[in-house]
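A quick aside before the break. I want you to see a complete sequence-to-structure record at least once, exactly as it would be stored in a machine-readable document. Don't worry about memorizing anything.
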Amino acid sequence: MLRTESKARARALQALYAWEIRGRPLPAELDEVGFGELTGVARERARRLFEGVVANYRSLDREIAQAVEHWRIDRVGAVERNILRLALHELLEGDVPPVVVIDEAVRLARWFGGTKAPAFVNGVLDATARRLGLL
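That is the input. The structure line, written in tokens, reads:
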């Protein structure tokens, strides 16, 4: 059984992926991706995460780019890029302990990313959190 927070993160990631591959439409245009099967707290959390990343993706990308050596942010896969955005947004919010945010991001990378995604996500987030003084 997945925790409410894990369900919210997974759905927010799926919505972010759809948002990006559809050319970054306004969040209201993504209602068909929606958060339909989620209810209550999970639905609100997923929507808040999604909207927070969408509102700040440029600054999140700049932060991530500093930790991604020898890669431009646009060369990182869309799934991994959005996992990193989502996790960095949560790290900067400060509501969830950094270790939990990173663990959850690695879990998302295992579920949705390629075979090397978990290690990549872990390395980038660890470096970013340390540079920002969060770890």
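Two observations worth writing down. The chain has a mean pLDDT of 88. The chain has one domain: 4-131. We'll return to this after the break.
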